[in-house]
Amino acid sequence: MRTLHLPGVRAVKLYVSPTSPYARKCRALILEKSLERQVTVVECAPLEDPADLLAVNPLGKVPALERDRGPALMDSPLICEFIDSLDAENWIPARGESRFMVLRQQALADGLIDLVIGRRIEQGRDEKMRWPFWAERWERAVARTLDTLTAERAQYERSVDLGALSVAVALGYMDLRYAEYGWRERHPELAGFAERWFARDSFIQTAPPAGA
Ligand SMILES: N[C@@H](CCC(=O)N[C@@H](CS)C(=O)NCC(=O)O)C(=O)O
After folding, report:
1. What's the 63 CA to ligand 1 centre distance in angstroms?
2. I need a surface site. Which of 110, 124, 142, 184 has the fewest CB within 10 A?
3. pTM of the predicted model, to two decimals?
4. Bridge pairing between strands 64-66 and 13-16
5. Residue 88 CB partners (closer than 8 Å, separation 6+)
6. Atom of ligand 1 at shortest distance to CA of 21?
7. Do residues 36 and 5 make contact, with C-beta atoms less than 8 angstroms apart?
8. Strand 40-43 and strand 2-4: pairing?
9. pLDDT digits over 107-145, tens only?
10. Given this model, what pLDDT does residue 1 score?
11. Is 62 near ligand 1, meaning CB less than 6 Å away?
12. How far away, in angstroms, is 34 Cα from ligand 1 center?
C-alpha cells in the first residue's frame, strides 16, 4: 500500500487503486475542493484482498472511506456525498430538481463505467468461457448511454459539479479501457466538454498511470 497526500492530518482515509474510475471521481472531488489535508489517499490493489481494505469494506472494493467519527463508507456516490459535506462548497446541490439532475448524471456515468468493466471482464475470459450475449448487450447499452449523455449535454456541459465531473471521468475511462469504441468520432459534441475537464489539475493529478 502506498499513502499519498498528507498523512496523519486527519484520520479520514480513502482507499483507492490507481486505475479505478470510481475512486478517481472521489479523488478528483477532493482535489477540486482542496480537501487534501482532510483526507489521506491510500493506494491498494483490491484484487489482492489487502487486510486494511477488507477491514473497512467487506465488499473488497475501492473506493472505501475510513472515517475518524463513524463507520466506514463504501460506494463512490455515498463517499462523494461525504466529501461534499466536508466544506461549504456544494458540488451536489442540497435539494430540489438540480440535485436529482446531478445525481442522475452521476448514475448514468457510473453505469457507463459498470458496462465497460463488465464487457472487459467478459472479453478477458478464455474463448470457451465467453458468452457473446453479455458483451453485445453491454455494447448496446454503452451506445444508448452515450446517446443519452449527448442528447442531455446542455444540462451539464457548462456545469462544474459532481454530475459533469462524473461524466468526464466515465469518458476518460472509455479512453482507458474501450478506446476502440471511438467515442470522440461518434459523439464529437462531447469532445470539447471532456477536454476542458481533462485539462483541470484534478484530472491531471488523477490520470491513470501510463501503460495501465
Ligand atoms: N459501485 C461501486 C463500484 C466499485 C468497484 O467496482 N470498484 C472496483 C475497482 S474499479 C473494485 O474494487 N473491484 C474489485 C472487486 O470487484 O473485487 C462504486 O461506485 O464505488
Report:
1. 7
2. 124
3. 0.95
4. antiparallel
5. none
6. 10
7. yes
8. antiparallel
9. 999 999 999 999 999 989 998 999 989 999 999 999 999
10. 60
11. yes
12. 25
For atom 12 of ligand 1, which residue has the closest CA? 61
Q: Grid coordinates standing for 24?
A: 478517481
Ligand 1 site, residue 32, Cβ cutoff 6 A: no
Q: Which helix (H) or strand (E) holds 193?
A: helix 191-198
Q: Calculate how far, in angstroms, residue 36's C-alpha sits from the geometric centre of ligand 1.
A: 22
Q: How far is CA 26 from the centre of its chain?
A: 7
What crossing angle do the helices spanning 21-32 and 97-124 adopt, rounded to 10°? 140
Report cis status (omega within 30 of 0) of the bond before 77.
no
- The answer to whether 60 and 66 have CB atoms below 8 angstroms apart is no
Distance CA(112)–CA(116), nearest Å, equals: 6
**Tell me, what DSSP letter sits at residue 28?**
H
CB 75 near ligand 1, within 6 Å? yes
The one-letter amino acid code at 110 reads D
Cell 482507458 belongs to which residue? Answer: 176
63 pocket-lining for ligand 1 (C-beta < 6 Å)? yes
Average pLDDT over residues 28-44: 97
Considering only residues 212 and 198, tell me which one the structure prediction assigns the higher pLDDT: 198
Nearest ligand 1 atom to the CA of 61 is: 12
Taking the CA atoms of the chain, what radius of gyration do you get in angstroms?
17
Nearest ligand 1 atom to alpha carbon 20: 10
The structural domains of the chain, ordered by start, are 2-84 (3.40.30.10), 97-205 (1.20.1050.10)
Burial of residue 111, with CB atoms counted within 10 A of its CB: 0-12 exposed, 13-18 middle, 19 or more buried: middle
Element holding 97 (H helix, E strand)? helix 97-124
